[in-house]
Amino acid sequence: MKKNSLLLVFLLLAGSFVYAQVEQGEKYYYYQRYQSAEDAFRKVLATEPDNEAANYWLGQVMIAKDDSASAKVLYQQQLAKNSKAPFILVGMGEIDLMDNKITEARQKFETAISLTKGRDVNVFNAIARANIDAGPGDAKYAIEKINAIPQRRRKDQKNAESYLLLGRANRKLINGGDAVQAFKQALSMEPKLAAAKYEIGKVYLTQNNPEFFLPAFEEAVALDPAYAPAFNELFFYWFKKDINKAREYFDKYLAVSDRDISSQYDKTSIIYASRDFQTAIDSSKLKIDRLKDKADPRYYKLVAYSYDELKDSVNAKNYLEQYFAKQKQADFLPQDYVFRGKLLGKFPGNETEAMNAYEKAVELDTSKAGKLEIMRAAADIATSTKNYDMQAEWLGRIYKNTPEPTNRDLFDLGFANYQAKKFETADSIFCGVYTVKYPEEIFGYMWCARAAAARDTSMEKGTAVEPYKKLISFGRSSGERE
Predict the structure, then answer these.
(1) What band does 481 get if pLDDT is binned at 50, 70 and 90?
(2) Which residues contact 419 (CB under 8 A, 6 or more apart)?
(3) Residue 4 above 70 pLDDT?
(4) DSSP 193-240
(5) Which residues contact 15 (CB under 8 A, 6 or more apart)?
(6) Dihedral sign for Cα atoms in the order 329, 333, 337, 343
(7) H or E stretch including 444?
(8) What is the pLDDT of residues 239-259, one digit of tens each?
(9) Is the CB of residue 305 less than 8 Å from the CB of residue 294?
(10) Could you give the CA distance from residue 380 to residue 290 in angstroms, rounded to a whole number?
(11) Mean residue pLDDT across the chain
């Protein structure tokens, strides 16, 4: 009897240890400390190879580390042992989504709900997470599943994660207002939930609104000084504005994160931001030589930027092309394409490819302000290369997308069309718009007359007669007013 009691105590302690290890792994995952999370889950699996929670979360870590192939093998092996493990089904459903097997994924999600009789909040959360994180995932379906959680269970303090996921799903749908409300609800349930503040910051970051995203990230680390993702965002924000402040946030990020290849890259990027370009080149090349194919592709980009600063466009272009050949499509940034367009614009014969790069940058940028900034950069390159057709096209798009265009914006658009020999368009801009909107300015009348004259080079149609009469009349009336 005494032996049985001791065995029971041992089993309870062992179960408690396993539960604590899984919980610790989940905590590391929340902090995006993926290597620490993996170590914790593998400790559990060393003693309980078929622990469902540990296997599910280990697969999630693998996906977060861009190793979905290993996650797929893991989930398949577990399903071969137990085809009715709900969390493994959800994990495999996420892999199906990533493989564009939408129907198969949905079947696995619904089966997981059925197996748990629709009562397990964590299953609903896992399904929502899968649909949010996987590119082809359905954010509306994620919201539907979260809303299917009984209200009393969703409002349980332990389930603030449901509202965190609800906010992320709305952010994926670009429903910023609903996303922020959901994150605030999560915070009302767990006031120290730094991830909720961080996600609010991400909403405003998408809108390129530092007035709101900076305080949100700062409040996130104030709530929880161990929340590395917010320190990382603050580091990136200050990177090109105040390198000393950026370095301070980077040091804080390193103190609470797992050291990985990415953080080594960021450390080298600080050298670049300090304007020590040759050292940045040498350090990056050393990493590339040492790590070979495992080197972060961004090292190639960093070398390209550094060479560009040193006025070596040939080497800059060479390394940037290597970056584009090695980087995953999903990891390209709008500014990558802007830089590519800028570099290509320096080499005659690459004008079309340069403009295509700017098109891609506009497509990737999600903020109106960001899109406009990229369009202006494209227009500047078109102007410097005397590609007046493209200049006119970009300025036209800028004018249409500028909330309150100025008279200078309208003049530049008209003049670009004039230089591109699109005289009818220039005529319609100066004669039909500029003189109407700005009747007290001579420029509209002057370029209206010139565009009309350019349309009628033989002087047979007389299209410039009336515009020149108006220009003379304006000149006389201006003289009288003086």
Answers:
(1) very low
(2) 388, 391, 392
(3) no
(4) -HHHHHHHHHHHHHTT-HHHHHHHHHHHHHH-TT-HHHHHHHHHHHTT
(5) none
(6) negative
(7) helix 442-455
(8) 889 989 999 999 999 899 997
(9) no
(10) 39
(11) 89
Say how far apart CA 40 and CA 24 lie, in whole Å: 7
Which tokens belong to 55? 């296997």
Of 206, 196, 146, 147, whose CA–CA distance to 176 is shortest?
206
Q: What is the mean pLDDT of residues 212-235?
A: 96
Q: What's the pLDDT tens digit per position in 388-401?
A: 999 999 999 999 99
Kindly report, residue by residue over 43-78, the tens digit of the pLDDT. Answer: 999 999 999 999 999 999 999 998 999 999 999 999
Please give the DSSP secondary-structure letter assigned to residue 430.
Answer: I
The 10 Å CB-count burial string (b at 16+, else e) for 225-256 is eebbbbbbbbbbbbbeeebeebbebbebbbeb
pLDDT band at 480 (very low <50, low <70, confident <90, very high): very low
SS3 assignment, position 143: helix
8 Å CB contact between 324 and 340: yes
Classify residue 391 by its DSSP letter. Answer: H
- Report whether 94 contacts 127 (CB < 8 A): no
Cα atoms found within 13 Å of the Cα of residue 256, Cβ hemisphere only: 20
Q: Virtual CA dihedral for 89, 92, 94, 100, nearest 10 degrees?
A: -120
In terms of Cβ atoms closer than 10 Å to its own Cβ (0-12, 13-18, 19+), residue 482 is: exposed
pLDDT reading at 421 higher than 80 = yes
Take residue 5 and report the two structure tokens written for it.
């009691």
Alpha helix ranges (H) inside 274-387? 277-291, 298-309, 313-326, 334-344, 351-364, 368-384
CA atoms of 324 and 265, how far apart (whole Å): 17
Query: Exposure string (b/e) for 415-444, b if CB count within 10 Å is 16 or more?
Result: bbbbebebbebbbbbbbebbbeebeeeebb
Which of 421, 467, 469, 474 is closest to 447 using CA atoms? 467
Question: How many Cα atoms sit within 13 Å of 390 on the Cβ side?
Answer: 22
What is this structure's pTM? 0.71
Residue 261 has what pLDDT?
65
In 3D space, the residue among 263, 394, 413 whose CA is nearest the CA of residue 338 turns out to be 394
Q: Residue 111 above 80 pLDDT?
A: yes
Contact between residue 343 and residue 317 where contact means Cβ atoms under 8 Å apart: yes
User: What is the rounded end-to-end Cα distance, in angstroms, of the chain?
Assistant: 114
Give the three-state DSSP class for 387: coil
Provide the percentage of residues in the chain whose pLDDT is more than 70. 92
Sequence letter at residue 322? Q
Q: What does the alpha-carbon distance between residue 337 and residue 359 come to, in Å, rounded to a whole number?
A: 8
For 85, residues 6+ apart whose C-beta sits below 8 A from its C-beta are 52, 78, 79
